[in-house]
Amino acid sequence: MDFKYSGENVNKISTDLLVVGIFKGDKFHGSVKSVNDALGNALRELADDENFDGELGKSVDVSRTFGKIGAKRVLLLGLGDKLRFSSGTVRKAANITARKLRAAASHVTFGPEFNGGKGYIAALAEGVMLGAYGFDKYKTKNGEEGGIENVVIVSESMKDRRFEDEIFEAKAISESTCLARDMVNEPPVYMTPSRLADIASAVADEGGMRCEIFDLEEIKRRGMEGIAAVSRGSAEPPRFIHLTYEPRRKPKASLAVVGKGITFDSGGLCIKPADSMRTMKMDMAGAAAVLGIMKAVACLKPSVKVHGLISTCENMTGPAAYKPDDVIRAYNGKTIEVINTDAEGRIVLSDALSYAVNLKVDEIIDLATLTGACMVALGTYTAGVMGNSQKLIDRIIKAAGGAGEKMWQLPMDEELRPEIKSDVADMKNVGSRWGGAITAAMFLENFVGNTDWAHIDIAGPAYNEKESNWSPKGGTGFGVRTLVSYIMDR
């Protein structure tokens, strides 16, 4: 997708679609008035007929302009409350536009009202690229290829350097988010732990990063019993992946991003009901986000050292599958009593988090589709954030706000900690059904030592069962944009 800017009058620009925006309750003025006047008041008449009032996401479409202006079509898009207008509004507006179009227009122009200052061009480009996303790899093509190819942003005061920098950043983040989406959307017969490791190796090669991949033998040799145990029921061997980005100069700080990579989760011997097993290809969304983050980091080159760590395997029901009542010794030596084999994500993460501590990083952040309990608490669009460092949690939530991803802090309530106390080991892998997202985080806390740590439970927003206003059906790439923003501002 190619992006350019132009200072040309909006009425004269030759384009398949001209997009102009108006705030809720606002009167026609500026480019909107100019276009409406040139079209003989057609925009206003359609707006009145459809009770359009500028609400964010609502639109009016003039399907033919009859040569009265350079654009073949015009889309009047609502920008919502003027007092709340931000780069996030622009991202949403551009996303909506791209999703409405899909293959309907190859050349799109946005009016000057979308350029509100620093960061707005990046948000617009990001919104268009993410909105244009679709996963149709396994559909038989009928020859009707299409989609947005060229985007022009009208601005009279744009500087070349600012435009180039913002487009570069937007492309890096969007392509990385789409990589994560693609990985989550792949069928599990294809997206195995071995294939995930191959993608990680390719991301590392492309970005000039170091990459270590441990096979089952090495996993066992290093004492990563959590990954080894969970993978025993599957014919697919596990992998542990370690990518390292290092800046050219001495890093300001170091951090590890850790992802849960269960490429398919049957529940193990505590098998899921059939309906609950569907979509469990998405249980590696944390790992996909980590690879997306590392891809973007290698491109944008922050001044911090970043480790990307992934524990990946399948959780299946084969004859060697791990069992309830088993006791597992994690990488840091702590023991885990298995109560439920369907709480496998926290077990594989125990090894990855312990490994991260040994890297002596300043911060650890993990992303995992960990608990249905988090979805019960926060719904399907919001991630839960917990951890041992309020400062780190606050910074992540701030970054999420700027990136347009919803996160909410849940409390590490000490009264719940006895729920994971075991009679035969250091801890149980599950407690009661109450506060399940919190006790899962408390379980993970046993493996981070004194390192500042935040856990992001992305079970809800990592995968959409149906298309929403702002994101596609299927994998969303949730977490990539937040943590790339966080790392770049570190």
By secondary-structure content and strand pairing, the structural class works out as alpha/beta
CATH homologous superfamily (4th level) name of the largest domain: Zn peptidases
Total number of domains: 2
Ends apart, CA distance between termini:
30 Å
Envelope shape: elongated
Mean pLDDT across all residues, rounded? 95
* Percent strand: 15-25%
CATH topology of the largest domain: Aminopeptidase
Query: In the CATH hierarchy, what is the class of the largest domain?
Result: Alpha Beta
Oligomer: single chain
| Total E-strand runs | 19
What fraction, in percent, of the residue positions are helical?
25-40%
CATH architecture name of the largest domain: 3-Layer(aba) Sandwich
Strand order of the largest sheet: 7-8-10-9-13-17-14-15
Tally of helical segments: 15
Q: Main β-sheet: number of strands, strand sense, barrel status?
A: 8 strands, mixed
Please describe the topology of this protein.
Blueprint: E1 2-6, E2 15-22, H1 30-38, H2 42-49, E3 59-62, E4 71-78, H3 87-101, E5 107-110, H4 120-131, E6 150-154, H5 160-185, H6 193-207, E7 210-214, H7 216-221, H8 225-230, E8 239-245, E9 254-265, H9 274-277, H10 285-300, E10 305-315, E11 327-329, E12 335-337, H11 345-358, E13 363-368, H12 372-378, E14 382-387, H13 390-403, E15 406-409, E16 427-428, H14 436-445, E17 452-457, E18 463-464, E19 474-475, H15 480-488
Parallel strand pairs: 1-6, 2-4, 2-5, 5-6, 9-10, 9-13, 12-16, 13-17, 14-15
Antiparallel strand pairs: 3-4, 7-8, 8-10, 11-12, 14-17, 18-19
